[in-house]
Amino acid sequence: MAADLSQLVKAYDVRGVVPDQWDESLAELFGAAFVQVTGASAIVTGHDMRPSSPGLSRAFARGAAAQGVDVTEIGLCSTDQLYYASGALDLPGAMFTASHNPAQYNGIKMCRAGAAPVGQDTGLTEIRELVENWTESSAPAAKAQPGTITQRDTLEDYAAHLRSLVDLTSIRPLKVVVDAGNGMGGHTVPTVFGGLPLDVVPMYFELDGTFPNHEANPLDPANIVDLQQRVRDESADLGIAFDGDADRCFVVDEHGAPVSPSAITALVASRELAKHGGKGTIIHNLITSWSVPEVVKENGGTPVRTRVGHSFIKAEMAKSGAIFGGEHSAHYYFKDFWNADTGMLAALHVLAALGGQDGPLSGLVAQYDRYAGSGEINSTVADQAGRLAAIKAAYQGQEGIELDELDGLTVTAADWWFNVRPSNTEPLLRLNAEARDETTMTKVRDEALAIIRG
Hints:
Strands 1, 2, 3, 4, 5, 6 and 7 form a seven-stranded mixed β-sheet that branches. Strands 17, 18, 19, 20, 21 and 22 form a six-stranded antiparallel β-sheet that branches. It is globular and about 70 Å long. It is an alpha/beta fold. It has 14 helices and 22 strands. It has four domains: about 15-155, Alpha-D-Glucose-1,6-Bisphosphate, Chain A, domain 3 (3-Layer(aba) Sandwich), CATH 3.40.120.10; about 155-245, 3-Layer(aba) Sandwich (Alpha-D-Glucose-1,6-Bisphosphate, Chain A, domain 3); about 260-365, Alpha-D-Glucose-1,6-Bisphosphate, subunit A, domain 3 (Alpha-D-Glucose-1,6-Bisphosphate, Chain A, domain 3, 3-Layer(aba) Sandwich); about 370-450, Alpha-D-phosphohexomutase, C-terminal domain (TATA-Binding Protein), CATH 3.30.310.
């Protein structure tokens, strides 16, 4: 009987519980399917610190090598370090990680040569179909001449590339607390930050895929409480938290107050535009703050609004030749990094901006944080389409209100907006609201929630 991979293969990656939903035998089939779909003659693989990652990664390499493909294993790495290897070596790549998910999960993030994404519409559906067919009949025949599996360390090269993109040599000394959450930031930060004028206070740098201190998901406020307190205790200039595979970074200011990813997007956008002579396209998804397109225009750039999700951002980056893109979830994409996302490069930009002037981070980001936002609020609903239709009916035809359905439903007025979009994988509706002041935002948020939960 064919394995049902519908719960394992998501829109952008493979992710599930080990060994309940997948194991090394399936990983081997994914390796074979990956090389068949990409047509690769050589690939690169890497993995995070989860207990199951080395075995799954090696099984994938075996499956690929059996198809005559040479595999370069870079071993322990962050996801953006794997993207670096895919870009620098011009090879398709596979990263074994479940990002911020709990310890029993694992997954694969795959890309074509040059870190181009492999998602539902760009090869992942075909990979899934091949693996399902092979579990039903027989696995693919091995080639007479198998490929080689070799190891290569790319950490120093990755760090050097990032540091070539942001000049931190002349900044004032900064004290920065870094919470790696027992994830891959503990592996990459010492090399990337080493030798810079930074006094780094490490938190949870020990690689431990069981996450003994807190979940490696800084998007949840509960998981940055330790960082916030440590920044205040150390009188640090800022704090930085990375998620489990260290492709996203979150920032808190000198008071321990979270800096919104929209403010970071606007700050980095202004720096990237300055680097490109005040010209260029900046991508932002439709639930980033109004401040992002405003700052982009003020700095001479062209803002382009997209759906939520890295495959949409990366596709638009490639299509428009954008120099930078940012999402509310703290994914930051750079043309100088093969259009891929790297939280580490965004962190370097923040450090360079802060260290290049004398004021505190709270003062620096104030110019980029102009509105009151709700953050993302999830509601469990049985009928997503019905609730969206109810919201549309409530606001449609009202004077001064515009509706658009680029991604879910966005309702916009002169002083506020909100977006409601369904989850792809759970019976949830996600609400984001923003307004020119806190009182208006609260009113708009509560009105929308009343209909969603009605």
